[in-house]
Amino acid sequence: MNENLTGQDWRIRLYIYQFFVAHGRPPSHDEAAQHLRLDPAEARAAYHRLHDHHTLFLEPGTNAIRMANPLSAVPTDFRVYVGAMAYWANCAWDSLGIPAMLGADARIEATLAHSSEAVSYTVKNGVLQADPFLVHFSLPFARWYDNLLHT
User: Fold this and answer.
1) Predicted confidence (pLDDT) per residue in 50-101, tens digit
2) For domain 72-146, which CATH number applies: 3.90.660.10, 3.15.10.60, 3.40.50.1100, 3.40.50.720?
3) Which fold has domain 7-66?
4) Core-most of 74, 97, 142, 143, by most CB within 10 Å?
5) Are 58 and 65 contacting, i.e. CB atoms less than 8 angstroms apart?
């Protein structure tokens, strides 16, 4: 994390989230550059600075966004339905983060990793409605960025 984030980096991050929420996928750095009238190289560098500061997560070795927490750009075991939109969440924690971020009711369909059992739960008026089950995180929160794809 050699460089501090700039105001422009934060504007790009906001655009990423706005686009992701509207389209169910993150924008490429070229799309962000076009929308914000930037040079694509400038937007690409901003994506990497945002990644370095853990404000989003790029697919390893690429310029493509893999995660803009709580949203996932790739299919996962957690599908979150909000109104007419469907989003992928990175984990059980993030499946609750999407309705919290949007301030909306949601229906979540998930597959439990230990048993492959399909479960569903909802968030209504900010309250989780679910049958009791346990969520296990394989690493403590302070170590999630040790291997974010594994966590």
Assistant:
1) 999 999 999 999 999 999 999 999 999 999 999 999 999 998 889 999 999 9
2) 3.15.10.60
3) Arc Repressor Mutant, subunit A (1.10.10)
4) 97
5) yes
